[in-house]
Input
Amino acid sequence: MTMPQPQEEVLRVFLTDRDVPCPVCRYNLRGLGSTTCPECGVRLDLRVGSIDLKLGPWLL
Output
């Protein structure tokens, strides 16, 4: 069994070889070594979301 990695390390590993824009300034975060955007200074975190969120049942 592997030990869970801290969230900051998981973010750094995720960005190692991916072109991901900063959600604020659109700076390319590929290879980022910290959890802060070097361009605008926003603190970053890695999240799971859905682009196909179904809100219908909650709107009734």
Notes: The chain has one domain: 1-46. The CA atoms of residues 22 and 28 lie 6 Å apart. The mean pLDDT is 84.
